[in-house]
Structures are given as C-alpha cells and as structure tokens.
Amino acid sequence: QSALTQPASVSGSPGQSITISCTGTSSDVGSYNLVSWYQQHPGKAPKLMIYEGTKRPSGVSNRFSGSKSGNTASLTISGLQAEDEADYYCCSYAGSSTYVLFGGGTKLTVL
Amino acid sequence: QVQLQESGPGLVRPSQTLSLTCTVSGGSISSGDYYWSWVRQPPGKGLEWIGYIYYSGSTYSNPSLKSRVTISVDTSKTQFSLRLSSVTAADTAVYYCARALGGIDAFDLWGHGTMVTVSS
To answer: What residues in chain A have per-residue pLDDT under 50?
Structure first.
C-alpha cells in the first residue's frame, strides 16, 4: 500500500496559521480515527503532536490541532512561531494487513 | 521517566543481516498498553514503519519488509530487537525504536535513532 500523500512544503509568516493535509484512502485515513502527526527537527527524533486525529498529548501547545474529512486528515498550526519550522509527518492505522502507514512528510518554513 | 536507546553496528555489508537492539529504561516492557516498534528513515527521506511487537511476542510487520524482518522481545532484559536480512544499500537509514500506544497506533516515545549504513 502506498504512503499517505502530503504536500512537500508549506510556508507561513510568524503569527499566521497554516494547514498541512494528509490524503489517504477509504482503507486507512477514511476508515479509522487513528491518524497521528509528528514534528521532526533536523537531526532529531520525531515528536508526537496529535493522536486519534484530534487529541493533543500533554505538553503539546494548543496551537496545534487536527481534523479529518473523508479520506483526508489535516494538521493546523495557528500563531506560527519560528520554532515550528520543522518536518511534519502524518501516520494512520491501515487495517490488519498493512497496519501502519506514514505520509511522505511536509517541510514547514516560517518566513 | 521511560527512555529508549538503540544499539548495534553502524556498518553492515550487503547481503548480511542488520541487527539492532532497543533497551527500555525507567519502565516495564511488559505493560499491555504498548507495542514496541521499529521505524526507519533513509537519508533525506521520510519515515517508514518496519514493525512492532507486543510483550507477549506477537509481531506485526510492514508487508513490504515482512519476508526479511524478525522482531523479538526479551522482557527479562527490557529489550526488543530487530533483525533485517539480506540488506542492500536501500536499507541504509536512521533506525528508530519507538513505543506505540496500543489500540491507537500513535508513537509517543522515541529513541534518538542510530544510523546504519549498508556498504562493502
């Protein structure tokens, strides 16, 4: 099964909001509320930002929010800050044959 | 707090077997709440899920790697391990061990990662 589809890059200015999309199929994103999002700074391990589509782990800023419509999940970052500049990956449970799929990643640039 | 640490050779010859171990410190590997996972990232590329194991020994692997992947757990040492056979240059990557929340497949805790290069 193919990876989930994310835009290669997005950008925004400090204080603005951006949204990163993650498109799957009816076999993964569309069938389960099990999308998670990860932030990865260069040379660092990924960090969980959103799980079960909309939930934030303790310690993650409420500027990060998740949503889903059909086969597409989205991550929105409001009030952009310089430290938000990173790569972002979505991930979804994909059923009992494929199990886990990651997106290709999106590079966020804060202008 | 719970920490994960990968260990293993940084260089593997083509056609050989890559072997890595993840040590879980500060907590139990036998908690039924988690699956213990391997994720890799080739240089400059995205994340790829390799597989995970439950403390009981049940394993689940990426279908594209399944024929070459073995994941095992040693609860007495609070370690789990990855073996990837018949490696090629395409297996060159940073390998992460991670903890997945059972039932929701979210990776909430990660090791720092270890770079493995496949080269003769």
So the answer is: none
